[in-house]
Specification:
3 helices
Length: about 250
């Protein structure tokens, strides 16, 4: 009996390093030991603004500009903090910029040359909101491992402060005497804005994935400085895609 017992003890010691709990082994192969507590997303995309306030109507009437000219390159980053199994608190920072050359439709200078200018519009929104995941983002296996879902769609809403700059540089016509002058016209201030969004994340691994979002912004700013009293339409649809990293 002694020999079999010794054989059993030796074989147990040899096999012990290989007997890792199943959940721990799985956690080292695409699984996580716990649900993520935060996600960082960085995206690039395009913003299409409604451009339907009085300042936009004025410049599209007088200059060779269309509303579509104010479509803008966009970039953004979100920090999402896990608040519940289906809810994140999201803090975001964005940037959009458009640059549109133009000339007066009905006026030329004394040499019959176009009267040219450039219009630039920049938005930097700082926002906070909630993001809701209607489907489960993963499944817990006991207390040792968490299996993340491959695709996690979401909807969200929030608001914040939009830092904007509206700037025109070039030649202009004085409507009182029709003289031509060179100037820089500018308004730079802040305004409150709200947004709603829908999107999703596709996870390539337990930490890295792809993110895509469609966001619609609501709001209007009262302009100052050279455009005192005019309204700047902040409404627009933005689509973007990029990289997601979770911790």
């Amino acid at each position: 009996m002694l020999f079999p017992l010794r054989c059993l003890a030796v074989s147990t010691l040899i096999a012990w390093p290989l007997c890792i709990p199943a959940a721990d082994a799985a956690a080292q192969d695409g699984f996580m030991f716990r649900p993520p507590v935060a996600t960082v997303e960085v995206r690039l995309g395009r913003a299409m603004y409604t451009a339907d306030s009085d300042v936009y109507r004025l410049i599209t009437d007088e200059l060779t500009l269309e509303k579509s000219d104010f479509a803008a390159f966009s970039a953004g980053a979100d920090l999402a903090l896990n608040a519940a199994s289906h809810v994140d608190v999201v803090i975001g920072l964005g940037y959009t910029h458009s640059r549109s050359p133009s000339e007066f439709r009905d006026f030329v200078d004394q040499d019959d040359l176009p009267i040219e200018q450039v219009t630039e519009v920049t938005h930097v929104p700082l926002t906070a909101g909630l993001r809701v995941y209607p489907l489960s983002r993963g499944t817990a296996i006991g207390q040792h491992a968490w299996i993340p879902a491959r695709f996690t769609p979401f909807v969200g809403a929030g608001g914040g402060v939009n830092f904007y700059t509206f700037r025109q540089v070039g030649d202009f016509v004085d409507q009182s005497d029709f003289s031509i002058f060179n100037d820089e016209l500018k308004s730079s201030s802040t305004a409150l804005a709200l947004y709603g969004e829908a999107g999703g994340e596709y996870w390539l691994s337990k930490k890295f994935g792809l993110s895509a979002v469609a966001r619609y912004t609501f709001g209007e700013a009262t302009m100052d400085d050279d455009f005192q009293g005019s309204a700047l339409d902040l409404r627009g649809l933005q689509g973007s895609a990029g990289l997601a990293i979770r911790f």
